[in-house]
Amino acid sequence: xxxxxxxxxxxxxxxxxxxxxxxxxxxxxxxxxxxxxxxxxxxxxxxxxxxxxxxxxxxxxxxxxxxxxxxxxxxxxxxxxxxxxxxxxxxxxxxxxxxxxxxxxxxxxxxxxxxxxxxxxxxxxxxxxxxxxxxxxxxxxxxxxxxxxxxxxxxxxxxxxxxxxxxxxxxxxxxxxxxxxxxxxxxxxxxxxxxxxxxxxxxxxxxxxxxxxxxxxxxxxxxxxxxxxxxxxxxxxxxxxxxxxxxxxxxxxxxxxxxxxxxxxxxxxxxxxxxxxxxxxxxxxxxxxxxxxxxxxxxxxxxxxxxxxxxxxxxxxxxxxxxxxxxxxxxxxxxxxxxxxxxxxxxxxxxxxxxxxxxxxxxxxxxxxxxxxxxxxxxxxxxxxxxxxxxxxxxxxxxxxxxxxxxxxxxxxxxxxxxxxxxxxxxxxxxxxxxxxxxxxxxxxxxxxxxxxxxxxxxxxxxxxxxxxxxxxxxxxxxxxxxxxxxxxxxxxxxxxxxxxxxxxxxxxxxxxxxxxxxxxxxxxxxxxxxxxxxxxxxxxxxxxxxxxxxxxxxxxxxxxxxxxxxxxxxxxxxxxxxxxxxxxxxxxxxxxxxxxxxxxxxx
Length: 604
Description:
Residues 35-57 are annotated as: Disordered. It is found in: Cell inner membrane; Cell membrane. Keywords: Cell membrane, Chaperone, Membrane, Protein transport, Transmembrane, Transmembrane helix, Transport. InterPro entries: Membr_insert_YidC, Membr_insert_YidC_N, YidC/ALB3/OXA1/COX18, YidC/Oxa/ALB_C, YidC_ALB_C, YidC_periplasmic_sf. It is a multi-pass membrane protein. This protein has helices at 3-24, 65-72, 332-340, 356-373, 376-390, 392-407, 409-419, 423-437, 446-464, 513-526, 535-551, 557-580, 587-599, and strands spanning 76-80, 84-89, 94-104, 113-117, 130-138, 161-162, 168-173, 178-186, 191-200, 206-217, 231-236, 239-244, 253-254, 258-265, 269-274, 278-284, 289-296, 301-307, 311-313, 318-329. Helix 4 (356-373) crosses helix 5, helix 5 runs parallel beside helix 12 (557-580) and helix 10 runs parallel beside helix 12. It is elongated, with a radius of gyration of 31 Å. The strands form three sheets. Strands 7-8-9-20-16-15-11-12 form an eight-stranded antiparallel β-sheet, with no helix packed on it. Strands 5, 10, 13, 14, 17, 18 and 19 form a seven-stranded antiparallel β-sheet that branches. The chain has two domains: 3-23 and 360-599, no CATH class; 45-219 and 228-341, Beta-galactosidase, Chain A, domain 5 (Distorted Sandwich). By secondary structure, it is of the alpha+beta class.
C-alpha cells in the first residue's frame, strides 16, 4: 500500500476515534474539586461570616415550599427591559419570573420565549422552579423573626415597574426598630444590582450578615452530553470550579448543610448555575465572602449561596451593601463587557473546553467575521479559509513529501523484491532510501494531528456559544446550532410527510443535505489517489466517507458546514500541489477504476 493511502487511512481512523471519543468520553473542561472548610461557629464576630442555624438544613433560606408557592401568587413588580420580561414577587422579594425577549424555544412563529426563572409550582419538561433571593442571617442570640424571610410581605410604590431607567425600592419595617430596604436596578442587558440597607432605630447595636442564593428545585429533562458542563460554576480567588448537576449529590455531607462544598473567598468571585446557553449567577461586590454549593436531597434542591461577613450597625445608624445578579444568555460580547467592568474572569463562565487557548481566539475571530459579513454560515466558511491559510505552509510541506513518496514507489517495489522475506533488510533499505532522497514519511501526518485540536476547538465554539443559536445560513438552514432539518427519506421535503424524529429507529437513516455533501466531499478527496491494490484496504477506504456521513448526520449544521469547507479547500490544495510536482491526479480515472474493480470482482 502506498504511503498516501496509508496517510488517508490514518486520517480517517484518527478522525473517527476523535469524534467517538469527543462525543462520549472526553470531559469539556477540567473540574477542580471545591475546597472543603469546617462549619463556622454560630457565634459570629465582626468580620466573620454567620453560619445558618442547624435547624435550617437548606442553608440561609430553608426550603419552605408553602412560602415559595405563596410567593408565586403574591403581588408582583413587573420587569420590563429591552431584553428581559417578568416580575419579582413581593412576598420574600423573590426573583422567580424571568424570560428572555431575544430568544425563543424554537423557530416556530408562535414559539414561547425562553423562560429562565420560574416560581415554585412550575413543573414542565423544560422548566422547573428556579429563582434567586436575598436576605439577612441572624447572629447568635438574635430572634430570626426580626429579619425578613421567605414569608415577609415587602412594600413598594403603587404601579412600580423595574426598567433600566426606573429602579424600584422594597421596604419592610419589623415593628421593633429595624427598617429594611432593598433597592433593585437593572441595566440594558442581564445584570441586576441589589442594594440591601438597614436602619437601626433600636437602642442597641445589631449584628447581621447579608446573603444571596440561587435555587433550583430539580432540573429540566434534557439531553446532556459529557463534553458540556451544566451545573454549578463559580470563580473563587481566580480559580474556576465546576460541579455538574449529577455530581452535586456526591459532595461531602456537612452538618446542617446537606451535601455541600464551602469555599472562603478573599479576593473576589462569583457563583451560580450554568446551562448550555443560559446562566444565573450571584456576584458580590465585596471581595470577602463564603461561596457555597450544595444539594438538599429531601427537597431535590440544587443551591448556590454567597454569605457575606457580619455587619455591625450601631444604634441610630444605618448600613447598606450591594450585590449583583446576572440572569440571562451567555453572550460573549455582553459577558466580556461585564468582565471588563470588574467581574473577575467572567468570560470563563462560557465552557471553552481543554483547548481554551485555541477556542477563545477562534471564537473572537468568528465573532468579528460574523459582524463583518452579517451571516454566521459564511463566517464559518471564512474562518475555515483563514485556518487553512495559516496551516498551509506546513500542509504544503506535507503534500510535497507525499508527492515525493509517490515518486519513490517504483524503487520501493524493487527493494521489496530484492529483500524478499528479510524484514530487517527491507527496513534498512527503506531508511537509506528516505535519507538519500531527503523524504520524511511521517511529514504527511502532521496536518492531520494539527486538525485534532482545531476540530475540537471549533466544535466547542459551534456547540456552546449562543451566537449560533437559531443563527441562519441560507435556504433551509435556519439554525446552525441544530442538525440539518432535511431528510433523504422524504426527498428533502418533496414528499408530503415529516422525516423521522430522534426517537425513531429510522432517524439514523434520515440524512440531510449537508451530511450527504460531507460524504461526497470526502469521497472526492479520496479520488486524488488510486485505490490500493489490497482489496481489504480498498474496501475500508471506500466505506469511510459514508460512515462519516452517518456519524456526523446529527451534528450541528455549523460543524458539518465547517467540515465540508475544510474538505473542499484541502482537495483544491492537494490537487494544485500534486499538479505542480508533475503528478496531476487522474480523478476521473480513479473513479472509473473503482467502478471497474467492483464490476470485475469475482462472484463468491
